[in-house]
Amino acid sequence: DTGVSQDPRHKITKRGQNVTFRCDPISEHNRLYWYRQTLGQGPEFLTYFQNEAQLEKSRLLSDRFSAERPKGSFSTLEIQRTEQGDSAMYLCASSLDRTGGGNQPQHFGDGTRLSIL
Amino acid sequence: DAKTTQPPSMDCAEGRAANLPCNHSTISGNEYVYWYRQIHSQGPQYIIHGLKNNETNEMASLIITEDRKSSTLILPHATLRDTAVYYCIVRVTNAGKSTFGDGTTLTVKP
User: Fold this and answer.
1) Which end of chain B is more exposed for a tag (fewer CB within 10 A), N or C?
2) Model pLDDT for residues A62-75, shown as the tens digit of each residue
3) Which of B5, B42, B98 to mutate to test the interface with A (most CBs of A within 10 A)?
4) Would you put residue A21 in left (φ > 0), alpha (ψ -120 to 50) or beta?
5) Is 60 exceeded by the pLDDT of residue A100?
């Protein structure tokens, strides 16, 4: 079990630029989640995938945000035209959803810290 | 998902048991109680979860009251490395998102 991997760990960019983050889930996990966390707050849900299907999106996910999981394995989160308020830690998590198999925990990566100048 | 209430901070002496409470008075019958912790600059780490019965693993024990309206996470012999923010969340079976509050900052002191 190599855990959830996120890349890059840190990203600094100027306001108005586009950024893309990558998440590699635990290999057999079919669910993948994105969260955002600002300083002193708990993580806030953004969206999640079951295999390649995006099943739920939070109202926090504005039109400038898009997430994909094209082959049901890794996922990318893109932010277009970044704003100061996008500065946060972006966390990815994965879990194994077994039909009728009860409740499985989410396992988190160590996040990508985004700083907007 | 039901909301949870946790004290903002707690202290514990090294080697002693740390008992972290969580209130979830509006929990539904199909919602599990999960505990995670987050050490600075890392992602949340799963600790334990349960539905009705008490649970124990190598990290901690989870005690859920009979009415399921509250729970306690017990770290039996706290170490300095247990200093972290501890989150209690409730989550519907096979739901997507987890709803985190602000957690309890546990400080283990020598």
Assistant:
1) C
2) 899 999 999 889 99
3) B98
4) beta
5) no
